Amino acid sequence: MKEPIRIAVTGGAGQIAYSLLFRLAAGELFHNQPIALHILEVPAVLSQLEGVKMELLDCAFPHLQEIVIGSDPHKVFEGVNFAYLVGAKPRGPGMERKDLLEANGRIFQGQGQALSDAAAKDVRVLVVGNPCNTNCLIAIHNAKNIAPQQFQAMTRLDENRAKAFLAVKAQCPVSSITNCTIWGNHSSTQVPDFLHTKIDGKLATEVIKDTTWLQTEFFKKVQGRGAEIIQARGKSSAASAASAAIDAMRSLITADSTTYSSAVYSANNSYGIDPNLVFSFPCKSVSKGNWEEVKGVEWDQFLETKIRASEKELIEERDLIKDLL
Ligand code: NAD
Ligand code: LMR
C-alpha cells in the first residue's frame, strides 16, 4: 500500500477542526492520495475527540487510511508532513487577539519543540491559533531542527474576506479578484492592499473609483470582520477559517506563481520590516512547499503608515513573549 501523507491537526475537538478534518479527509487538499490524520487534543476533551474520530470513520472516506489521536504532541506529531496548529483559546466579544497571548503562547513553545523532534524533516506548518503571527514566531524559535521558512501563520482568511467584499462592490465574481495582499498582523491593524489588487486584470482603483470607500469602509470591514462574526455568532469564525486553512496549504504546494497572502518569517525581507517577526507579505510558491516573497510592490504614504503600525504592534507582541523565544 502507498505510504499516506500524514497531516496533523491540533484542537481536534474544537470548532475549526470540525470542519477542517472532514474536508482534509474528503481529499480536498490531496486528491486521490492516501492520507493519515494525526489529531491532537488536551486530555480533558479526548472523549469528545473519540466522537469526532467515530464520525470520520463513519464517512467511509476512500482515501483516509489512518487516524491517530492523542494528547502527547511528541507522539501525535510523529512523522507528520503537514501540521495545522489550530488548538488554542479563541477570543470573546470585546477582546483583541493579542489578549490571548498569555493563555496561548506557551502552547506553541511546546508544540514547536515537539514538531522539531518528531515531525518529518520536510514538514510544513500553518499556525491558525491566535494571535497566530506571534504564536508562529514562538513555534519557529522553539523548533531548532525545522527551517523558519517551513512555518506560516494564516492571513488567508483576511485575503478571502477582502476579495469577497471587493467582488460585491464591483459586482463581479470573486474569481475576478487577484493580487489582493494582506500585509502585517492578523489583527485589527492588518493592511488589505487595495492599491495593487486587480479586478479582471485592471487595477481595482480603476474599477472602484470610490477611494474614500476603499480607505475607510472596506479597510475597516476587513480589519474588523473577525470581531463582527464573534458579535453575530457568539463564537469566532470556524467554517470560513477551515476553508482558508485549506486554501493556504493548497497555495503553498501549488507552484503556479499566483500571488497569495501569508504571514511568514521576515528575515531577509525586501521591504525593510523588522527581520524577526512573522509578517504577512505577498508570496508565491516557487516549487511544491517552497514560497518566495513577491518583491518590488511599491507602497504609497497611506499603505506605508498602516503597514508600519502593524509592524509596531507585532514588535510589541514579541516583547510580551520574549521569554518564550
Ligand atoms: P475552539 O475553542 O472551538 O477549539 C479549540 C480547541 O483547541 C479546543 O478543543 C481545545 O481543547 C483545544 N486545545 C487547547 N489547547 C490545546 C493544546 N495545547 N493542544 C491541542 N489542542 C488544544 O476554538 P476554534 O474556534 O476552533 O479556534 C481555534 C483557534 O483558532 C483560536 O485561537 C481562534 O482565535 C483561532 N482562529 C484563527 C483564525 C485565523 O484566521 N488565523 C480564524 C479563526 C480562528
Ligand atoms: C477571525 O479572524 O475570524 C479569527 O481570527 C477569530 C477572531 O478572533 O476574530
Stretches where pLDDT is under 50 for at least 5 consecutive residues are none
Shape: globular
Q: Which whole number gives the mean pLDDT?
A: 97
The quaternary state of the protein chains shown equals single chain
| Helical amount | 40-55%
The number of helical segments is 10
CATH topology of the largest domain: L-2-Hydroxyisocaproate Dehydrogenase, Chain A, domain 2
Strand order of the largest sheet: 3-2-1-4-5-6
Per CATH, the architecture of the largest domain is: Alpha-Beta Complex
Largest sheet: 6 strands, parallel
Structural class: alpha/beta
Strand % is 15-25%
Number of strands: 14
CATH class of the largest domain: Alpha Beta
Question: Any idea what the radius of gyration is?
Answer: 19 Å
Number of domains: 2
CATH H-level superfamily of the largest domain:
Lactate dehydrogenase/glycoside hydrolase, family 4, C-terminal
Series of H and E elements: EHEHEHEHEHEHEEEEEHHHEEEH
First-to-last CA distance: 41 Å
List of distinct ligands in this structure: nicotinamide-adenine-dinucleotide, (2S)-2-hydroxybutanedioic acid
How would you portray this structure in words?
Helix 6 packs across helix 8. The chain folds into 2 domains: 149 residues, NAD(P)-binding Rossmann-like Domain (Rossmann fold, 3-Layer(aba) Sandwich), CATH 3.40.50.720; 169 residues, Lactate dehydrogenase/glycoside hydrolase, family 4, C-terminal (L-2-Hydroxyisocaproate Dehydrogenase, Chain A, domain 2, Alpha-Beta Complex). It contains 10 helices and 14 strands. With 325 residues, it is of the alpha/beta class. Helices cover 41% and strands 19% of the residues. The radius of gyration is 19 Å and the shape is globular. The strands form 4 sheets. Strands 3-2-1-4-5-6 form a 6-stranded parallel β-sheet. The site of nicotinamide-adenine-dinucleotide has 28 residues, from helix 1.
